# Entry
Amino acid sequence: QGDRREVDREVRSVCPYCGVGCQLTYKIKDDRIAWVEGAPGPANENRLCVKGRFGFDYVAHPHRLTKPLIRREDAPEKGLNVDPANPWTHFREAEWDEALEVAARGLADLRSYYGGRAVAGFGSAKCSNEEAYLFQKLIRQGFGHNNVDHCTRLCHASSVAALMENVGSGAVTASFNEIENADVAIMIGANPVENHPVAATYFKQFAKRGGRLIVMDPRGQALKRHADHMLQFRPGTDVALLNAIMHVIVEEKLYDRQYVQGFTEGFFEFRDHIRAFPPERMAALCGIDADTIRQVARDFARARAGMIFWGMGVSQHIHGTDNARCLISLALLCGHVGRPGTGLHPLRGQNNVQGASDAGLIPQVMPDYQSVEDPAVRDLFRHIWQGTRIDPKPGLTVVEIMDAIYRGEIRGMYVMGENPAMSDPDVDHARTALSRLDHLVVQDIFLTETAMFADVILPASAWPEKTGTVTNTNRQVQMGRKAIDAPGEAREDWRIIVGLAQRLGLDWDYDGPRSVFDEMKMSMRSLHHITWNRLESENAVTYPCLSMEDPGQSVVFGDGFPRRAGRAKFTPARVTPPAETPDERFPMILITGRVLEHWHTGSMTRRASVLDSMEPEAFVQVHPRTLRRLGVAPGGMLKLTTRRGSVTVAARADRAVAEDTVFLPFAFVESAANVLTNPQLDPFGKIPEFKYAAVRVEAAEAG
Ligand code: SF4
# Structure
């Protein structure tokens, strides 16, 4: 933790991990981060969790990339066979000029020979808004299409699809801190104590002061202790459960008639649809008794102010969009939108997944969710981007891009700060696809599993090594400031993107993130009244922001929605079973997710000494009775097999999971959860079903 007596300087910035977006202060001694303290940001009010407080020394890990690398001509076959500490049989060091030249030439050659669609890009939710903007611009301007995406596709794409469809905006309608004004809150498919820990402190305070907390999750979890109702429903039955709750609200006439009449459309079709879901019929399916469903419905509908929070347990299903549609309908029915203490809040995952999406790092829309199919939008960007023709066809999403690579239709990729060789579903398929690329350029801070497949690796900056803005789950745009220099010759991501763009023939002339931010403001209404100067002096401004004095609107849509006639929409949702269900060969259910100490694919947190020492090894959570049935003691090894593959991993006894279910964290490469996961997609959000796979669990054979 360093010497706490004195430091050379202090730098205010933002935590690089989750979407809560806690502000922090880096304490710098001898040009190294000595320790970190919470700062008074609007989302965290000085609080930090273990990742924010102790997870910073990854920046000084000896595995950091400090010079550009180019694949050697005599390198062994591409695969996960590179030692990050000793990559020299596969790669050689290069100067920046040569590396950028080779990187750009490989992509440009594919563009000339096969056309622009032969190249696609994955940007990152870990980089700044400015870097996300530049990345999507490079693909759209440099290659003439929209095949650019990032990890939002793997976390909340279905939530955004449902919110855009029914509310007219993809962001939260209220900050999570609004819970202090609520009487009741639903927390479904989210485990904030592990995944949004500082937000969880507000949720616990809410319960302690008497707020009614309703937790719905197939897994038990820490918030259960604070809940008035804990509904541990069967995995994949969200729509049945939520429709049953809404059936009660409609049947018992508990809904807010005035609100429904004044602010919504589609109620009568919805009312007819919901009649088919009485709790007594849904109880057996979702494993929750009808009386509990009725009580939850009454508690939520009768409250003066209610909020709904959800996480990836809702979104990562082939019916993820339907799940989110149900939550939106539930809030609309009860009029729990647009007032203090009310709202819809999908808890965003990565520190800048909201901002990267806002900046247009998604294949269907330009910055600020402006559709590529709208001629007026294309005209706007043709004007701002000096004559660039925007492709009117929505691009491919993350998993679709991987499939196109596999089929040989996409032959070159530019990947900035993402790790699809760990994060994609059915990851052996993704790894095979990556190995087939003619040219892969990876820009990262470590030699990730994806970088192992690269032809050129460009060493980038960690978050404390650069300046830029990020946007958290609350729509708060915040200023991240450079605290230390990057190691060796590593560069800021924005500078690398510009260098590559110039070598691809684009006439780019940015002199820093501020000039990029100024360009973003030309097309993004969400940034009205938010200026670089304000962010420098105020550290955070929430959008929408009504004036230069306004800190921004925490709660939105009190006077209508950004949809036709200002009305939100009810979209009925049918019960769709998971893409595969247990059978004789694969009789149990696999759920994947995160743990408190590790972040996503583990490339940073497994190199953060405190976090790695707290949770150093892969494990799978299994109910003790299931372990006894399998004849395996806690700590013994289990083999998990799905239709995609097998992993072997140590068992951890945990009563939080049901007896027919196992939970496998996805941060550990040695038992990569995504070897097992199902790549089937939600048809609207195109998100894979990470939260449900049929699995066989057995004792691993000794040796
Ligand atoms: Fe960082 Fe999230 Fe923890 Fe806050 S809650 S310190 S943003 S990981």
Q: What stands out?
A: The two ends are 40 Å apart (CA to CA).
